[in-house]
User: Fold this.
Amino acid sequence: MRMSEMHMKTLREVPNEAEIASHILLLRSGMMKKLVSGVYGFMPLGWRTIRKIEDIIRQEMDATGAQEIHCSALQPAELWEESGRWSKYGPELMRLKDRNGRDFCLGPTHEEIFTDIIRNDITSYRQLPQNLYQIQTKYRDEARPRFGLMRSREFIMKDNYSFDRDEAGLDVSYKKMYDAYSKIFTRCGLTFRPVEADTGAIGGSNSHEFTALSEVGESEIAYCDNCDMAATTERAEFRDAPEVNEEMLPMEEVNTPGTKTIEEVASFLNLPKDRTIKALMFVKYNDEMTEQTGYVAAFIRGDRELNMIKLVNALGIPEHAIEFADEEKMGPATGIVGGFTGPVGLHDCTIVVDSELVGQKNMCAGANKKDYHLKNVNYGRDYKGDIVKDIKLLREGDPCPVCGQPTKVARGIEVGQVFKLGTKYSEPMGAYYKDENQQDRLIVMGCYGIGVTRTMAAVVEQHHDENGIIWPMSVAPYHVIVTLVSAADEQQKAVAEDIYGRLQAAGVEVLLDDRDERPGVKFKDADLLGIPVRITVGRGVANGVVEYKLRREADKTEKTPDEAVNDAIALVNAERRG
RNA sequence: CGGGACUUGGCGCAGCUUGGUAGCGCGAUUGCUUCGGGAGUAAUAGGCCGCAGGUUCGAAUCCUGUAGUCCCGACCA
Assistant:
């Protein structure tokens, strides 16, 4: 492609709407443009990278035996009513009506559609397993679109669904997808970790998130360098501190005026924070959030943090059905006193005690009396929990739940997820097959997703410097850029054209910067665009040399045009082979 | 949904406190000079100052409302 003819506009200045590298650089390089909040369009260079990522996904999906189809983004409400999600999905679902007033939505995901296809087409066990995928535009009316492609309202996603006879079959399908995902993200040049994830509202028995490591990511993961433990911090189990071997002392009320926080109590009584008990109060609602159904008091050791996901799982309620309580209102009903809440003497609320507290002795907790705390509080003797479970968050340095070594915590971008769905959709939607004994049996499903546009953003986050993007060869819009320093110099022009033609003939994707621009502009643009190899044709041609430079390296070398062409071809082919 | 900030030419911004119908840099167009890391010079084009209402002889500027954008939080396959 000749850049003099390409639709491309780069920006010198940082658009004021962008804050993180991928957002800034994708806008500055002109690869994408914002239409409205959370909705972007892609220009020629950006679209080429999207298609490269899609092609990697297609190759790896096809290699597993999955088959590509294409469904509409427009979906009828009836199918969502069958699965029960039309009412449950909430405002994130983009809803619309046709001219006759029928309800539709723009698909945020396609479980219903694929289940519908399968229940109509599959009748016999002989037809299973099946695995269908599509690469398609998805819509989610996010409460808060953020960071460009990181959290957008319209995005490109590869989604696929596996259909098996039984759980054993699902295990095989799941493993295939897990392995394919690892290959895909490796080929895209990402540093990532597959981590165990909470199954959340989707349900099912097992799930992994594929997380590209990045400081700007919205996911937080815990992992261990000593063993292979890796999980979202929400999901990660906690290895409780060992039971304290101490004599139980008599409980004692102490005056602690004005000490409402753990820090204040600990320093006032000169106690370490791990000898205190932290209290967190909640109001519970029914699923529709229309009615209060009770109070919850959760207790954890003073130096820990609460894990909301674990708490709602322990209570067996959806996450949206609980919120922090107004302690003033809750006080009379349950006996708590804001800032001085403890587990002793509470009534009319569900008491959830973190499992670790059971083995801790002579702790300090609120006395449920203004300006007083209790010392030497012991589980079993002084208080009990209605529920005793691990409800705390794993933090950096806490012991690894598998091997006990200190845990590491990192942030990352969730670029893919795999789920074992089981019969969550096949049951309400009636997706059955007949087995060998003519018995109707539910199809066992898995679902798997990759955020294509988000993957593009993650690649930029991991591969850039102060001058621009540094595309890995596998997803670069072009492999090589030939920078013609002076288009007016006939000799330079001839050499550049020759190199351009030979690279194209060898199947290398090459840009020729033949624009009537000053050299500085061309160099800046080449760096910003992040093309992996740059061959500069300038004054060196008088001596028979051109300049060969890799975007990811600082050094440039002089080569003859022949050497430069051959080296570029060799490099591109080597990267293609993996 | 709560909190905060912003909205002035294609992009980045100033002007607003103390009302008098708009300015800078980049970008664009043309000429001359320049030509290896976002050139110099001269000239030109381009703006219902987010939108609506109000105050005023007069509003980018003051007041009210509203929309959009971004950030923090809540929420979230």
